[in-house]
Amino acid sequence: MVLTAFVMSLLSGAAAGTSTDLVFFPIDTLKTRLQAKGGFFQNGGYHGIYRGLGSAVVASAPSASLFFVTYDSMKVRVRPHVERVINSSGTRSPHSVDTIVHMIASSMGELAACLVRVPAEVIKQRTQVHSTNSSWQTFRTILKNENQEGIIRNLYRGWSTTIMREIPFTCIQFPLYEFMKKEWALYDNEVGHLKPWKGAICGSIAGGIAAATTTPLDFLKTRLMLNKDSIPIKSLIRNIYKEEGFKIFLVEYIQGQCGLVPAVPSSWVCMRQCILCFNRLRKRKLYCIDSMIKFL
Ligand SMILES: *[C@@H]1O[C@H](CO)[C@@H](O)[C@H](O)[C@H]1NC(C)=O
Ligand SMILES: *[C@@H]1O[C@H](CO)[C@@H](O)[C@H](O)[C@H]1NC(C)=O
């Protein structure tokens, strides 16, 4: 029975991942084009917004499953160690145990998911800013290893920046999510059985805050992945600063905050960012898994 529930939530996680990737794909394309060098219109504007969809679809379910399987098994394995440390430190708080276990397990889940997600993202983003090539053609171009850096290195371009983004993202999101759920449950007298839709709202807010704080890294990740040759992140920052000025960082940062600042929803960029925050959270399958498990 336990296994059935596991498989069920695994499948629903994968299905949720794939369907949200499909629905939000055009927004993702617009985001990539905004972040790319040269700006939005030079990188394709509104044309061909489904470019690169293939790589997203192929990678979606495996990366969601990898996340979920790792998260689920690590949660069980990490707990005794965390308990021991917390017990010996004298602070007997079951909440902090839960939070720390969540953070460690999901960081490991992210790491595992990145094995699939990073190559798919490299192919996807390059396809999104290319005017004619398909995901498959981009993949074949990478396989040709024209810059002599090696296929693996080219496929895993931006790996460390992606991890630098995913792990803080998770470590901000999870404790916030747990905290908001707890407070809401206390407030509405639903301790232990908070309604799934309320959990979803907590999840979107937590995801939004986490996304906003990690946006600069997302921008750098896109630039790294799109660059023809691999480049150290320091040089990348220096080049961007020299060629595009400090303004570009500011613009990127403000765009990242817009999901949180309802006072400036007038610009479509901000609208995009709001949806993106929501999308990012859904990608993590956080509340999907959470409510599926309750539902099963
Ligand atoms: C830590 O303490 C809790 C209760 O205080 C106990 O249930 C748990 O078994 C302890 N864990 C370890 C690893 O000592
Ligand atoms: C686009 O596809 C062509 C033909 O497969 C290939 O020669 C070219 O390098 C590709 N461009 C990119 C940027 O992938």
Automatic annotation (TrEMBL):
The keyword Lipoprotein does not apply. It is found in: Membrane. Keywords: Membrane, Repeat, Signal, Transmembrane, Transmembrane helix, Transport. Pfam families: Mito_carr. Solcar repeats lie at residues 4-77, 97-183. Transmembrane segments: none annotated. It is a multi-pass membrane protein. InterPro entries: MCP_dom_sf, MCP_transmembrane. One of its GO terms (molecular function) is S-adenosyl-L-methionine transmembrane transporter activity. One of its GO terms (cellular component) is mitochondrion. Its main location: membrane. It comes from the Eukaryota. Residues 1-17 form the signal peptide. Belongs to the mitochondrial carrier (TC 2.A.29) family. This is Mitochondrial carrier protein PET8. It comes from Naumovozyma castellii. The gene is NCAS0G04290.
